[in-house]
Design a protein that fits this description.
Length: 205
């Protein structure tokens, strides 16, 4: 089914579904991509890309496994610009994946909620991080990132959601997003794109 045809049933969301059409892709070595997400937290896209490139350069290949990452001295990770906390979180991911036999094939068989429940057991990995992993690494089409600030701000501008406290806001957002199932990931992608475009427009006015 064409996701746009479905999302256009929401007349408010339909106003921002421009000519852009998004696709979601599956990637390999999901554990490594989870570590990449941790590295990029609270960093600009440019700085995060530099650190990740330095990280991969520490290994003989660009697809290191959990054992290779665990064997890497913490000092080597700190030397590429990672904080002590991020070093610990990256090692946590590697150890958890080994202990629980986390493989791409295993994750592929699991539903979204099961993956969120599994991976948020790792210290340093929150629900938002796993949701981004589901969208951009596992290619899942029905993920709604209710805690994402960009989605919150975008929906507040699109829908009558003013005057709500944080809990009420999330409840209303989830109620609206129910109508987007099973393509909530694509709705998020369009909201992010629209919000960024509106932000640039305001800067030039």
């Amino acid at each position: 089914m064409n996701y746009k045809a479905h999302l256009q049933k929401d007349v408010v969301l339909a106003t921002i579904l421009n000519e852009d059409t998004f696709e979601l892709s599956r990637h390999q070595n999901i554990a490594l991509r989870l570590m990449s997400s941790i590295m990029s937290q609270q960093l600009s896209t440019k700085v995060a890309a530099v650190i990740y490139t330095r990280f991969l350069a520490l290994f003989e290949n660009e697809n290191p496994n959990a054992v290779e990452i665990l064997n890497l001295p913490n000092e080597a990770l700190r030397a590429i610009g990672l904080s002590n906390n991020k070093v610990a979180y990256i090692k946590n991911v590697a150890q958890f994946c080994l202990d629980n036999n986390i493989t791409d094939a295993k994750l592929e068989t699991m539903d979204n909620e099961s993956i969120i429940h599994l991976l948020t057991q790792i210290k340093g990995v929150g629900q938002w991080t796993v949701e981004m992993l589901l969208m951009f690494s596992l290619g899942r089409e029905d993920v709604f990132a209710v805690d994402d600030l960009g989605i919150q701000q975008g929906m507040q501008r699109l829908y009558p959601l003013d005057g709500l406290d944080k809990k009420q806001l999330k409840t209303k957002m989830q109620e609206i997003a129910i109508n987007w199932k099973p393509f909530r990931s694509f709705a998020c992608l369009h909201i992010w794109k629209w919000k960024d475009a509106e932000k640039k427009k305001l800067k030039t006015e």
